[in-house]
């Protein structure tokens, strides 16, 4: 998993509340178990018209936000079914950080396991971040995970809370497999001990 330390990007404003996982990645794209290739289907029902052409009104289709790595979204982001394809699609598109006032628990946990930083902020701070995001390519946000800060284009700073263990995992790029591999020497030593006992 790619470590998350600092990230500077033009934030994309998605002023929609209760964005569920089916809106993030519709059910017809859940047949694959690959983590790649889902970026084109991200928010597909909002991004594309019925004829398959792009909807120019959708934020990620607008020139300023096509390469956004930060998404500023409305309350209760990631609600609905517990599909891990939702963070896969966000990550494959290029989104590394989602900022909202609240997240659905399962989606929130899945983000950390896939290298995405979900940040919870107050409504007041979210409104400020929406204002920054509305400025398009004229404004960028810088996320610093170590200091737990979001720096705005005008020098303002928003702080956020994060569980220390989850912070450690993101900073070091450790998913569940990576955490297990950290214990590889102890696992190997235990296996060697078992072999010795088997022949005793």
CATH class: Alpha Beta
- The name CATH uses for the topology is Aconitase, domain 4
Task: Provide the spatial order of strands within the biggest beta sheet.
Answer: 1-6-7-8
In sequence order, what are the helices and strands, one letter per element?
EEHHEHEHEHEEEHHH
Radius of gyration: 19 Å
Structural class designation: alpha/beta
Question: How much of the residues is beta strand, in percent?
Answer: 15-25%
Low-confidence stretches: none
Q: Roughly what is the average pLDDT, rounded to an integer? A: 91
Number of strands: 8
Under the CATH scheme, the architecture is Alpha-Beta Barrel
Shape: globular
Q: Please, what is the CATH homologous superfamily?
A: Aconitase, domain 4
Q: Helical segment tally? A: 8
- Largest sheet features: 4 strands, antiparallel
**How much helix is in the residues?**
25-40%
Q: Could you describe the 3D structure shown?
A:
With 200 residues, the chain is of the alpha/beta class. It has one domain (6-174): Alpha-Beta Barrel (Aconitase, domain 4). The chain has 8 helices and 8 strands; from the N terminus they run E-E-H-H-E-H-E-H-E-H-E-E-E-H-H-H. It has helices spanning 21-24, 44-47, 85-93, 105-113, 123-133, 164-172, 176-182, 184-199; strands at 6-9, 11-14, 70-73, 97-100, 117-120, 141-144, 149-151, 157-159. It has a 4-stranded antiparallel sheet with strand order 1-6-7-8. A 4-stranded parallel sheet has the order 2-3-4-5. A hairpin with a 4-residue loop joins strand 6 (141-144) and strand 7. The mean pLDDT is 91.
């Amino acid at each position: 998993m790619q470590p998350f330390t600092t990230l500077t990007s033009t934030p994309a404003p998605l002023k929609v509340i209760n964005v569920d996982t089916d809106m993030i990645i519709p059910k017809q794209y859940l047949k694959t178990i690959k983590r790649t290739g889902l970026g084109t289907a991200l928010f597909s029902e909002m991004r594309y018209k019925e004829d398959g052409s792009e909807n120019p009104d959708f934020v990620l289709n607008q020139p300023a936000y096509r390469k956004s790595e930060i998404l500023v979204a409305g309350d209760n982001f990631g609600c609905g079914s517990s599909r891990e394809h939702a963070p896969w699609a966000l990550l494959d598109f290029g989104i590394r950080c989602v900022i909202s006032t609240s997240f659905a628990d399962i989606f929130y946990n899945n983000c950390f396991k896939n290298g995405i930083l979900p940040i919870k902020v107050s409504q007041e701070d979210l409104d400020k971040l929406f204002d920054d995001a509305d400025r398009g390519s004229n404004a960028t946000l810088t996320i610093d995970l170590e200091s737990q800060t979001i720096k705005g284009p005008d020098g303002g700073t928003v702080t956020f809370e994060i569980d220390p263990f989850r912070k450690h995992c993101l900073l070091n790029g450790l998913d569940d497999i990576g955490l297990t591999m950290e214990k590889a020497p102890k696992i190997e030593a235990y296996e060697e001990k078992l072999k010795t006992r088997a022949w005793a």
